[in-house]
Amino acid sequence: MDPSFANITYDDGLGKTGLERTLGPPWKFPYETIPMSRQALRGYEWWTICPKELAGPLGGAGALRATGAFHEVVRLPSGALWLQATKNYRDYGPDAYAAVFHALAPALPAGIPKRFDQRDDEPAERIIYLDASAVRP
């Protein structure tokens, strides 16, 4: 297998990542972002697969381990990276997803995510409301 992206998160909103639900306009749908998922990460979640095409520009497994943003970084046989932010999902809070955002910013699409009102029964988006292109090294 040679994955271009995968994630595990609390809510996946019709196949959209948290970043895809909040980054726009123009609002992107998975049928638009999937074909581009080897050029830009579709999002960053508690567990994310980063494709080999983006692993190199991010510095590879060693560089991402060195950021301290991940509990586990595994290079898959394809060259893609398995990135698990915290040992347990319950620990994936604001500090953890901020660290993941900053580690992956060079591979994320540009733009400032938008905040939307949420119902009390909806989980909060685990998104940093900054333009990834503004924090790239």
Distance between the termini: 31 Å
Helix content: 10-25%
Indicate the low-confidence ranges by residue numbers: none
Shape descriptor: globular
Could you give the order of strands across the largest sheet? 1-2-4-3
Query: Largest sheet, described in full?
Result: 4 strands, antiparallel
Global Rg: 14 Å
The tally of beta strands, per DSSP, is 4
Task: Please render the helix and strand layout as text.
Blueprint: E1 6-8, H1 18-22, H2 30-33, E2 47-50, H3 52-55, H4 60-66, E3 72-75, E4 81-84, H5 94-104
Antiparallel strand pairs: 1-2, 2-4, 3-4
What do you see in this structure?
This protein is an alpha+beta fold and 137 residues long. 23% of the residues lie in helices and 11% in strands. It contains five helices and four strands. It has a four-stranded antiparallel beta sheet.
Question: TL;DR?
Answer:
With 137 residues, the protein is an alpha+beta fold. It is built from 5 helices and 4 strands.
Please describe the structure with a list of short key phrases separated by commas or semicolons.
4 strands, 11% strand, alpha+beta, 5 helices, 137 residues
